[in-house]
Amino acid sequence: MRTFTVHWNDLKRCLPLGNDLAGQAMRRDLFERIDGPDGKGILQQAKVIRAIYRSLPTITGIPDTRPFLTRGFHTTVGAIAPVARIGTDNLDRNQFRSFMTYIWYYVKVWELLLQNDAQVKGHVTLPEFEAALASLQKWGFKEAALWDRDPTAAFDRLSGGNSVLPVEEFIDRCLNSALPDLCQDGEENEREMAISKLSKTFPHLLDQNPTKKFGGLTFIGSALPLPPPGQKRPPPQPVSEALIKPHTFNRWATQYTVDYENPSRLPSPVPSAPGSRPQSRGELSKAQSTPALRRAESISAGKQTLTGLDREAIRKKLEAHVEMNNTSHLRKLLKVAGGMAVEKQICSPTKHRRPTFAANPMMAMAAAY
Fold first, then answer.
1. Distance (Å, rounded) from C-alpha 226 to C-alpha 41?
2. Integer Cα distance of 122 and 199 in angstroms
3. What is the pLDDT of residues 67-122, one digit of tens each?
4. Threshold 0.85, pTM exceeds
5. Judging by DSSP bridges, how do beta strands 123-124 and 165-166 pair with one another?
6. Residue 61: is its pLDDT beyond 80?
7. Are 249 and 240 in contact (CB under 8 A)?
8. Which of 239, 242, 264, 350 could form a disulfide with 278 if both were Cys (CB 3.0 to 4.6 A apart)?
9. In 10 A of CB 167, how many CB atoms?
10. Which CATH class is domain 8-197?
11. Using the 8-state DSSP alphabet, how is residue 213 labeled?
């Protein structure tokens, strides 16, 4: 009794492989739907596998198709040459068609092996390999004719000298050598459409000898500027010397680098003598100390001192201007002037209150005298 594997009509709708106009239109619509609204002409691995995985019908014996889809993606990239330098994690239109061909024949070989009673579950042995050679030749596997001459030696090469081979690896190794022949029909047309699409989106990828320099800049592994669709690459624009000579870059003018800039990078108002070295950060910090708080601007820096003043002079200084930065500074001034006034309040013996300052500092000074 034949074992059911998959609904082939459903699988055919998911994988449009025809070379007629209807098949090409369906394949183009599928490619553009996966490519997205941007229309870059290149499909990434994750997007292709996700789209095919969601559209495939149920296959008997394969509960999760993502492992064999990932294996088929890498096999297709290695067996089918791309039309441009797009990397090993992308597919062009021709490779996309070859990837769908891989999936179609993978399921066909899977169904073929599923009909036989496997001696080792999930593995292929020499008798099963010999029984599958006739069908492989009928489907277009050209190397199957060579394998049929000496099945034992061919199976040893495929299995690496082992007596059994996992089914997934067996199908993948068979398709790895047969995929270029299976995709030969209609390949030229697909490659032309892939080149036409990439010439509009990534024309620099089609250059056999890509330009290394453009507008005074050197491009290593990066793309040159792309022109708008239907136009040629714009003429080179004047480039700043800072881009041509990277060592002349200025540091970023952020607040952090402004506050903590190395003194050697700061512009000096007085030109230094020839041969003199710039001051280091430690030497500069010793030479001048930055005040923690800004003083009042109404009094000059020369008058902002209490050294050498008697109590009367301090009183006059306070009457003229009370320079008060914080509470600690006020405490020092009041201590030098004769103490601070404390409001007399009746406090309970069990509850003590902290002394408070008078509302007016001049009243505190008057109370001290």
1. 15
2. 46
3. 999 999 999 999 999 998 888 899 999 999 999 999 999 999 999 988 877 777 88
4. no
5. antiparallel
6. yes
7. no
8. 264
9. 22
10. mainly alpha
11. E
